[in-house]
């Protein structure tokens, strides 16, 4: 694991389609977010994301701000990823396994402008947030 790429996997006892439906709905993201920063979507975000979809999220980390995102990967029940203006990528990969799904969430901030985040300990903080997100996701689908 690079200091500017973090990834965590968790087995969730639910089918990929149930998990993907939540991930593909930006109106559910605030319920999943283990960092506590994601709020509700802003404006006319679609209720179901698709490749190329654009959506903005209200955020709060000390102060309120907005991120404008674009879906950069979308394979129904398998992969969904989006990025914002800095091109940092949040990605979910779903792999069916027996009676459930192995869900891997990753955050890729390997762009040159991601270096300051590394110096601020972002990799460790993000890893903790991803673990909390996957736990919340499991609770939502159980």
Supply the key terms.
alpha+beta, 40% strand
Structure description:
This protein has a seven-stranded antiparallel sheet with strand order 1-7-6-5-4-3-2, with helices on one face. The longest helix has 20 residues, at 122-141. The chain contains four helices and seven strands, in the order βααββββββαα. The N and C termini lie far apart (30 Å). A hairpin with a 3-residue loop joins strand 4 (63-75) and strand 5 (79-83). The chain has helices at residues 16-23, 29-32, 115-119, 122-141; strands spanning 5-12, 38-42, 54-61, 63-75, 79-83, 89-97, 100-108. The chain is of the alpha+beta class and 142 residues long. Helices cover 26% and strands 40% of the residues. It is globular, with a radius of gyration of 14 Å.
What is the secondary structure topology, with strand pairs?
Blueprint: E1 5-12, H1 16-23, H2 29-32, E2 38-42, E3 54-61, E4 63-75, E5 79-83, E6 89-97, E7 100-108, H3 115-119, H4 122-141
Antiparallel strand pairs: 1-7, 2-3, 3-4, 4-5, 5-6, 6-7
What structural class do the secondary elements suggest?
A: alpha+beta
Q: What share of the residues does DSSP label as strand, in percent?
A: 35-45%
Q: Helical element count?
A: 4
Overall strand count: 7
Strand order of the largest sheet: 1-7-6-5-4-3-2
Helix content: 25-40%
User: Tell me, what's the shape?
Assistant: globular
Write a concise synopsis of the structure shown.
The chain has helices at residues 16-23, 29-32, 115-119, 122-141, and strands spanning 5-12, 38-42, 54-61, 63-75, 79-83, 89-97, 100-108.
């Amino acid at each position: 694991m690079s200091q500017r790429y973090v990834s965590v996997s968790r087995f969730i006892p639910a089918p990929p389609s149930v998990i993907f439906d939540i991930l593909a709905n930006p109106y559910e993201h605030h319920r999943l977010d283990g960092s506590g920063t994601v709020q509700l979507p802003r404006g006319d975000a679609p209720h179901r994301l698709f490749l190329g979809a654009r959506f903005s999220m209200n955020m709060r980390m000390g102060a309120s701000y907005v991120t404008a995102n674009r879906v950069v990967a979308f394979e129904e029940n398998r992969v969904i990823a989006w990025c914002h203006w800095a091109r940092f990528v949040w990605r979910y990969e779903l792999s069916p396994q027996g009676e459930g799904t192995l869900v891997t969430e990753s955050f890729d901030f390997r762009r040159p402008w991601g270096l300051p985040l590394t110096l601020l300990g972002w990799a460790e903080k993000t890893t903790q947030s991803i673990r909390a997100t996957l736990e919340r996701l499991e609770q939502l689908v159980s």
